[in-house]
Write a structure and sequence with these properties.
Length: about 325
């Protein structure tokens, strides 16, 4: 409980500090150099604030649902629902996020426990890949971000389903030994400290609220960083350079793939960041951004490495990159 309280306090202090600095930087009444009083600063402010305001409600909804599931839903219930047939098991895992919409940050801790209780690894990995994308919260967020381009919404859901299904089948055929680490002591450092809290806190409502608050502040840091970096790129990078990259046959996909990996945005907010590039990047590259990000980013890589062996994480990362790149390019050619 003490570790969780320290981590929660640290997140609160960090978020308040960032918001205070942003207020000083963005407030019109503060005297700042003439260069920052230009239209360039106004463009940056408008872009940054619009992304934050659009994404916050969906991030909040996502962490609340994640917290409810974390506290009130037993893993044994999910385990009993898993079909034994591998094809049906993969389909079930792809659609499990519709029933249990857990954010990617809470996905790996939950799945780790499910594997230890008997869930097949290939089913668990498919759930890790699709859960943060194929769920009602992300569907609604993507719909709001691309109201005038619903084809991107359907392509995102479809490509996530296809990529995860192929990876699940490959893992089912190739995995002979457990890819879990023998020692999982590092998991509690990089991953979640909620298990400790739940063992010592019998008030489920209080535990749910604590979980939601901590996850919201954790996600808020990534959202603000992503929105700021996006606004900076859109404002200060020469538009012609972005257009030349954004409409390249392969370079645009690779750029957005790396962008998604570095930003480590929550899947409930990444669509709003992607929509800000709609006029400079191709739809296919935006699709790559929205599928790769929730499946594989910097923070999820650390969490995967804390649970699975390095070789398994490397192979999984390559499979995600290759299948997503190929799938988005095919969809861009025949659908967009």
């Amino acid at each position: 409980m003490q570790i969780s309280l320290i981590r929660w306090s640290r997140n609160v202090i960090f978020t308040i500090s960032v918001l205070f600095l942003l207020y000083i930087f963005l407030h019109n009444n503060i005297r700042i150099p003439s260069l920052l009083e230009s239209n360039t600063l106004q463009t940056f402010k408008t872009m940054f604030i619009s992304i934050i305001l659009e994404a916050i409600p969906f991030v909040l909804l996502g962490v609340v649902l994640s917290s409810i599931l974390q506290v009130f839903v037993s893993e044994k219930l999910i385990q009993r629902l898993i079909p034994r047939n591998p094809i049906l098991g993969i389909i079930f895992a792809c659609l499990l996020g519709i029933i249990f919409p857990v954010c990617e940050c809470g996905m790996i801790p939950v799945v780790r426990r499910l594997i230890q209780k008997g869930m097949p690894v290939y089913v668990a990995v498919v759930f890790i890949l699709t859960g943060p994308i194929i769920n009602p919260v992300v569907y609604a967020a993507t719909f709001m971000a691309f109201r005038t381009h619903p084809d991107l919404l359907y392509a995102r859901m479809g490509l996530a389903f296809i990529v995860a299904s192929f990876i699940g089948l490959i893992l089912y055929k190739t995995i002979k030994k457990s890819p879990l680490k023998r020692s999982l002591s590092s998991f509690h450092v990089i991953g979640s400290s909620h298990e400790h809290d739940h063992d010592h806190n019998h008030n489920k409502l209080s535990s749910m609220l604590s979980h939601a608050a901590e996850e919201f502040f954790e996600m808020g840091k990534f959202l603000m960083f992503g929105a700021m970096l996006t606004a900076l790129i859109q404002t200060f990078v020469v538009r012609e350079s972005l257009v030349s990259i954004g409409h390249g046959a392969i370079i645009s996909h690779l750029f957005m793939m790396g962008f998604a990996y570095i930003l480590s945005l929550c899947s409930t907010s990444d669509a709003f960041v992607a929509s800000s590039f709609l006029n400079t990047f191709s739809k296919g590259s935006l699709l790559t951004f929205m599928v790769v990000g929730p499946m594989l980013d910097f923070k999820s890589t650390l969490m995967l490495l804390s649970v699975f062996k390095k070789k398994f994480v490397l192979v999984l990362s390559l499979l995600i990159a290759v299948f997503t790149l190929a799938g988005s390019m095919i969809i861009e050619h025949f659908y967009f």
